[in-house]
Amino acid sequence: MDRYFLFRPKPFDCETLSSYIQRVSIRNLISPDDIWRTFTKKKYTNNQNCISIKLDVNPNSVFDLSSFENSLMLENGTLKKMSLFSLIDAKINFNLESTSNTYSFVRNFFVTHRRYCPMCLNERQAYKLIWQIKGIDFCMIHKVPLVSSCPKCNKKILLLAKNGQVGVCSFCDHKLQTIEDYNYVINKQENILYETWDYLMTENTPKLKKISGLSYKETLCIKIIYFMRKLSYNSIENHFGYIIEGNDNEYIIPFELVIDLLMKTQHTISEFINEDIPIKFIKYISSKDITKYNNLVKLKNSLLLI
Ligand SMILES: [Zn+2]
Ligand SMILES: [Zn+2]
């Protein structure tokens, strides 16, 4: 028979899973450690904080999400939507969950200790996923810098301490809602990065649409080359050099490449996803000799059919 939590708070919009676990635990008078031990897929005993980083990036790899959802009477799939791989895949079909290395993604994009906006915490006791993204060092709502350690004991806040509570330092019990009066000036680059992640994390923003006759991966490939043109690199052949990293006659498109490209071309991901690629451009690409790269023969064949 299924067992249910007595109190079943709903996840907030944009909340991290590690934050939600702490809220469920405090409402039910147990510790996050109890929840972790009950629902973790393997028995990780010593390095909970290290492994719990995966909760917010690729939770399926460490945590039994569906059992946790059942015990909270949540619809299946609700909690997965709180994690980065799932959010990105939902918008641009990178298939990160099965193709990507969580640790290398974390190195590039994810801050592994808690960051927070004290003013947001004051209004709502939950940690947001966007606060963990590298390069986003401010709260867009309050225009203050995110705080990355406890103002009292100066220690970095763990994502999921054994006795963790949202808004409280697990080392000294200091409340983290202290308001700092500080006006953060957001530059253009930061703004693009913020818009990009905000877009990925917002449920009803449009997804990448396949170009008719191409797969998602091929569509992504053509879009990237189209946007690279905006950087006016020398030749179209050079552009492909960025994409062909795979082996076994398969090419890989790294997610890092898209973020890097957006930053360099100063475009938002909304422009990237929603811009229609002119058929003239597709014809132009298919007329180029890209078949010296074995793994692009298939792409060329698909393009020729359009
Ligand atoms: Zn805020
Ligand atoms: Zn502290």
List the helices and strands and how they pair.
Layout lengths: L16 H11 L4 H8 L8 H10 L7 H7 L12 H9 L3 H4 L2 H8 L8 H6 L14 E2 L4 E2 L42 H14 L14 H14 L6 H5 L14 H11 L3 H6 L4 H9 L9 H8 L2
Antiparallel strand pairs: 1-2
Helix pairs in contact: 1-2, 14-15
The structure holds zinc ion (2 copies).
3D architecture notes:
The chain is mostly helical and 306 residues long. It has a domain of 90 residues. It is built from 15 helices and 2 strands. Strands 1-2 form a two-stranded antiparallel ribbon. Strand 1 and strand 2 form a beta hairpin. The longest helix is centred in the middle third of the chain and has 14 residues. It is globular, with a radius of gyration of 22 Å. The mean pLDDT is 86. The site of one zinc ion (ZN) has 6 residues, from helix 8.
Which parts are unreliable, with pLDDT below 50 for 5 consecutive residues or more?
A: none
Q: Estimate the global geometry from the Cα principal axes.
A: globular
Helical region count? 15
The ordered string of helix (H) and strand (E) elements is HHHHHHHHEEHHHHHHH
**N- and C-termini, Cα separation:** 55 Å
Tell me the helix content. Answer: 40-55%
How do the strands line up in the largest sheet? 1-2
Number of strands: 2
Radius of gyration: 22 Å
Structural category is mainly alpha
Mean pLDDT value? 86
**Ligand species:** zinc ion
Query: How large a portion of the residues is in β-strands, by DSSP E?
Result: under 5%
Q: What does the main sheet amount to? A: 2 strands, antiparallel
